[in-house]
Write a structure and sequence with these properties.
The two termini are 18 Å apart. By secondary structure, the chain is an alpha+beta fold. It has two helices and four strands, in the order H-E-E-E-E-H. The protein is 36% helix and 31% strand. It has a four-stranded antiparallel sheet.
Length: 84
């Protein structure tokens, strides 16, 4: 979890995003990262309204969920921004 949060903190200096992290016994751990109002800027990404969804992960294992979210975000940045 710490590595993911540290990466987000570093990322926010040059590529601000919105992040939602939550847990429920029905949904397990859930992490969502998106760019608000940027759906048209990233047409290959999933969209919710006019927002581009960069990452959406869910897992019962908290550490695994954060690790998967970090990998998914880095892969998204490589594919859509040329790196991180």
């Amino acid at each position: 979890m710490n590595e993911f949060l540290l990466f987000l903190n570093e990322l926010s200096s040059w590529f601000p995003v919105h992040v939602e992290i939550y847990y429920s016994k029905v949904m397990d751990w859930c992490i969502k990262v998106w760019k608000e109002g940027c759906a048209s800027d990233y047409p290959n990404s999933p969209h919710e309204g006019d927002h581009a969804v960069l990452v959406e992960e869910q897992d019962l294992d908290m550490q695994l969920c954060f690790a998967k979210a970090q990998v998914a975000l880095k892969e998204w940045l490589r594919e859509n921004r040329g790196g991180y």
